[in-house]
Amino acid sequence: MAELEKEVQRARVANGEDLSALIYHPAPAVLLALLDNPAFDESKLTLLLSRKDIPVELLQEVGVRKSLMKSYAVKKAVLFHPLTPRLIGLRLLKDIYLMDLVQFALSPAVSAELKRYVEEQIVARLPQMPLGQKITMARRGPGRVAGALVADGNATVLPVALENPFLTEAQVLRALARGKVSVGVVQALANHPKWSQSYNVRLALVRNPSAPISVVLRFLPQLTVSDLRVLAEPGIVPENLRKYLQAEVRRRMLASQKRAAREMAVKGDILSPPQAQDDQSAEEKQHRGEGEGRPNGNARPEEADDEA
């Protein structure tokens, strides 16, 4: 105990290399004492905060000391530490620069709650962002941010957002489900080599009020009959599209009936060959019989000539 107290006192007054060495001390009390050392500057504090094994008590203490939290580097280091308490992290988010927020949201160590909150903060800032920053967000931002930019439909930003590696099908479907989606967004998704191959995206495009007839007709043959029947119910799609849906259902049913008839015919042919073979054999025997009788019939005139 006396040894620990000596180390604590040493941490409060050390400087130079001795102070730098104490940054890696294992005792939490010694690390907390470093915060009271006048020589313990911002660079040394951020180095201490880079340790993944520091006690939560230290992070809490740093978080409540206004003199320490004046430094942006310290704020960022505290926010990014995986052991930082939730309330401290939430309080710091409003002071973090945009690109650092993006980096934080993409960090795998961030909890789902904080990640969602950060993404919502970024989305809230989108309307005030200049075009260049929006393009950066579309290219490197989290999936929720990319989805918001897809829904926004800016002709320059949209193609970049659709290629975002974090954009998910759920985000694309959420963008299509928003009210008043532009025709440009629908066309871009309908022509995209990746998203146009998703069945759920195709279904969402068909039922979207902004979808042109050409897009609807292109994807109708690729939807299941059960989904077509649901879409053809009143109030799901505009009335002028229902006739196309109903016609497609009828076409599928007719095609199914014809296919079933062909299959039955093929099965019938498979079962009937033995009988057909017997009929053929009987017919061949009959022909052979007629053939054998013809020489005798032809000989009679010759015999008559011989007798004559």
Q: How would you portray this structure in words?
A:
By secondary structure, this protein is an all-alpha fold. It has helices at 2-13, 16-22, 28-34, 42-49, 56-64, 66-69, 72-80, 86-93, 98-105, 112-125, 131-140, 143-152, 158-162, 169-177, 183-191, 199-207, 213-219, 225-231, 239-271, 273-307. Among the domains are: 1-96; 198-268, no CATH class. Helices cover 71% and strands 0% of the residues. α12 (143-152) runs parallel beside α14 and α14 runs parallel beside α16 (199-207).
Give the key terms.
308 residues; mainly alpha; 71% helix; 0% strand; disordered C terminus
Ends distance: 153 Å
Helical/strand content category: mainly alpha
Proportion of residues in extended strands = under 5%
How many β-strand stretches?
0
Q: Tell me roughly what share of residues is in helical segments.
A: over 70%
What's the main sheet like? Answer: none
Q: What's the SSE pattern? A: HHHHHHHHHHHHHHHHHHHH
Q: Radius of gyration over alpha carbons?
A: 40 Å
Which regions are unreliable across 5 or more consecutive residues at pLDDT < 50?
290-308
Shape: elongated
Mean pLDDT, to the nearest integer, reads: 87
The number of helical segments is 20
Brief sketch in words of this structure:
This protein has 308 residues and is mainly alpha-helical. It has helices spanning 2-13, 16-22, 28-34, 42-49, 56-64, 66-69, 72-80, 86-93, 98-105, 112-125, 131-140, 143-152, 158-162, 169-177, 183-191, 199-207, 213-219, 225-231, 239-271, 273-307. The model is unreliable at 290-308 (pLDDT under 50).
